[in-house]
Inverse folding.
């Protein structure tokens, strides 16, 4: 009987240890909210990039920041406004920035140092919108693919 008890404890311990990587991935990404708009950002390092990519189908707007050489840029700011210039979201961004917006048209602005990029986008039902801001200088040593 004692052996069965020890065996069960061992199985529980092994199961808990096996689950640690999954818990770690959950802690890598923190969903944030601003003005009723939830978003997630990051992508520095392979582990964080992989964790973000695994969530991308949950978001209808996916923004990527990279330099001309294809290296991720993690020092940017994203501002999303409606067409009447009402700011819905103003947040620091990592190389990848994912959010969900209601169907409609928006202005997405990216800021990196003295550089500014602006794009008008349309969010449609069931179709993700992708924005790729290309910055002039190398800002990170993390290569995008």
């Amino acid at each position: 009987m004692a052996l069965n008890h020890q065996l069960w404890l061992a199985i529980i311990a092994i199961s808990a240890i096996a689950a640690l990587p999954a818990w770690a991935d959950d802690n890598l990404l923190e969903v944030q909210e601003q003005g009723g708009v939830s978003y997630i950002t990051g992508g520095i390092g392979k582990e964080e990039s992989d964790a973000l990519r695994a969530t991308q189908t949950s978001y209808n707007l996916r923004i990527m920041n990279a330099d001309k050489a294809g290296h991720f840029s993690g020092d940017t700011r994203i501002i999303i406004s409606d067409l009447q210039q009402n700011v819905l979201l103003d947040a620091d961004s990592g190389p990848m920035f994912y959010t969900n917006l209601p169907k409609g048209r928006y202005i997405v602005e990216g800021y990196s140092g003295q550089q500014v990029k602006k794009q008008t986008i349309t969010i449609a039902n069931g179709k993700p919108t992708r924005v790729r801001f290309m910055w002039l200088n190398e800002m990170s040593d993390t290569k995008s693919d």
Q: What stands out?
A: DSSP finds two helices and nine strands in the chain.
